[in-house]
Specification:
The chain has 318 residues and is of the alpha/beta class. It has helices at residues 8-27, 32-50, 55-62, 70-77, 121-127, 134-149, 167-171, 174-186, 202-206, 227-235, 241-247, 252-257, 276-294, 299-311; strands spanning 84-85, 98-105, 108-115, 154-160, 192-201, 213-217, 221-223, 263-265. Strands 1, 2, 3, 4, 5, 6, 7 and 8 form an 8-stranded mixed β-sheet that branches.
Length: 318
């Protein structure tokens, strides 16, 4: 387990707790009371630390190297061997930063689409750090249209620092691909559930972010720009990234207060990276809860409600 700078108090107590267990196993001395006290102290430290998190610290948690990624969620919440990954946009190629395919939760088939980061240096390069090219968004739209054809609900997982900013992406129509996805997703005739599990940056997130229900994990963020980029534009460097994170109102709590999302998904104590198996369970429960709510609406009502949801965002003056 890796720890961020502000998580060091947790690491110190956790190491003591693990050592206590090891000493008991090796020596045979009864250390249960000491271990129990350390466990209580660990939980209290985590609770205190996470009750005082700043927006910038939540941004850091959203990028935690041990945090579960899209494929982790999909494989963990679907029935064994039921997820079938589909590839290619049928125009240029198969973007590895965008993944998708059919899978079953309980007995219901869903189309899963999401941005995928890498777990090590080689994998991150392969996945382009979760930043899709235009063909990634076109693949996502192809899969969502396939779901519409077979009347299967769609679940999208967002965890991206943004769409890929390279020249080749612009040459192949990055803005057009994202814009078309937003337009088409407004009118898809099946329920769409969106979950932001980590970073939700700019058009890179919006390209698969239109849904009937939109939720954010507790330690995720959603904004038109990252705190570092905002700081660089306004102050010419990254030194004001903490101030930018606070001003941008990018946390799940801020998004909920502004009525830009429907729910905040509570993470396990310590964050999704600390107890990923519990994070999978709560996400699975949220998806099924939303699906049951949305399945009651007929197509016309579903689309009308979705459009009205986004039309009502913002403030309008005469």
């Amino acid at each position: 387990m890796e720890y961020l700078d502000f998580e060091k108090p947790i690491k110190e107590i956790y190491d003591q707790y693990i050592n206590c267990i090891l000493i008991e196993k090796k020596s045979g001395v009864n250390m249960k009371e000491v271990c129990s006290q350390l466990q209580d102290k660990l939980e209290q430290t985590i609770k205190k630390l996470h009750s005082q998190l700043t927006p910038w610290q939540r941004v850091q948690l959203s990028r935690h190297p041990n945090r579960p990624y899209t494929l982790d969620y999909i494989i963990s919440i679907t029935k064994k061997d039921s997820f079938i990954e589909l590839h290619g946009d049928r125009y240029i190629g198969d973007d590895k930063a965008m993944i998708g395919g059919f899978g079953k939760i309980e007995e219901k088939t869903f189309m899963f689409v999401g941005t995928q980061k890498g777990k090590n240096t080689k994998d991150r390069q392969y996945r382009r750090f979760g930043m899709p090219n235009p063909e990634g968004y076109r693949k996502a739209l192809r899969l969502m249209k396939l779901a519409e054809k077979f009347r299967k609900p769609i679940v999208t997982f967002i965890d991206t620092p943004g769409a890929f900013p390279g020249i080749e992406a612009e040459e192949r129509g990055q803005g057009e691909a994202i814009g078309k996805n937003i337009y088409e997703m407004m009118c898809l005739k099946v329920p769409i559930i969106v979950i932001i599990i980590g970073e939700g940056a700019s058009g890179g997130a919006l390209g698969i972010g239109i849904g009937d229900k939109v939720s954010m994990m507790e330690n995720s963020w959603y904004s038109v720009i990252s705190p570092e980029s905002c700081s660089a534009i306004l102050w010419g460097n990254w030194e004001k990234k903490e101030k930018s994170a606070e001003t941008l109102k990018l946390t799940a709590e801020d998004m909920h207060k502004l009525n830009l999302i429907d729910d905040i998904i509570k993470e396990p104590l310590g964050g999704a990276h600390f107890r990923p198996e519990l994070a999978y369970k709560v996400v699975k429960k949220q998806i099924m809860k939303y699906y049951k709510q949305l399945s009651f609406f007929d197509t016309e009502v579903l689309i009308r409600n979705r459009k009205n949801k986004y039309i009502s965002i913002g403030f309008f003056y005469d």
